[in-house]
TrEMBL record:
The chain crosses the membrane at residues 12-29, 35-53, 83-102, 114-130, 173-193, 224-243, 258-285, 297-316. GO terms for molecular function: branched-chain amino acid transmembrane transporter activity. It is found in: Cell inner membrane. Coiled coil: none annotated. This is Inner-membrane translocator.
Amino acid sequence: MLNQFMQSRLRGLIVLAVILYTIPAFLSNPFHYDLATQMAIIAATVVGLNLLVGFAGQISLGHAGFFGLGAYFTGIMTGNYGWSAIPALVVGGILVGILAWVVGRPILRLKGHYLSMATLAVGFIIAIVINNESQITGGPDGMPVPPFDVFGWELSPFGSYSLFGIELNGSQAWYLFAAAVLLVAVWLAQNLIDSPIGRALRSVHGSEVAARVVGVNTARYKSLVFVISAIYASVMGGLYAHFQGFITPAVASFDFSIVLITMVVLGGMGSTMGVILGAVVLKLLPQVLTHFQEMEAVMFGLILMLTMIFMPKGLLPTLQMAVSKRLKKRAGGQA
């Protein structure tokens, strides 16, 4: 049974890889590639957030703060101190993870609305610090970020590259790189979910009391997954900063935190592939609805409301249930 479950995970990862590397066939200009790259980076962020929300059942309304910290740490260290991108991403992830552990230990003892307010406060504090420390972060005006570099090799949206004899422009190269990062993020998340840690997280989500009765250290596991999700956000924030080439305090804003949590809920909490779909849909909707002009915001809210009413478990889980029911009916009719 376990082997079948793992094979199903592997098939899902292979399907995702095929989809990601087939998408360029439908992208016709740099804007489309830029949008797809943003989707991949943000999807990897919500994959980490889903570990906290979907599997451990712990809410976070300030996760953009960790994303912003990763973005600004990488931007500052590479732009002002000459660091390479990889060391900046790694050290930034470690520091943000330590901060998440320190902050998470006390606030994760809270539950429900109290936990929501505590994580919201953490996000607000981070955003205020980034906004006010103008000598370091550039304040409300933001700051430039150098191109992503590895051992002197730079990845820039304006460059030209060759991969296995195929000539790529900077936007195409960035998309392929972001797609590879998303695949790694999903693979790591799936391995965590299938491990004893993942089973402990699901038990915490089901019932903390029952989990403690069977010997699960709920405080430890909640803090651990909070740290992991924060590291995901930090690393993806750093990549986003290099891709954009310029960052502002908006990357750590409350609005962005709400967008991230909405992606998880919309796609399907507890579904890794579902939250990726949620990220894609929520990122694409504003582009599709621009034709409605002044009614864009109304249409956007209406679509989200109807989705949550008729698909409360999220997009992908609801679609999977509908397909499963249809297949069962068909099998029953043939019998």
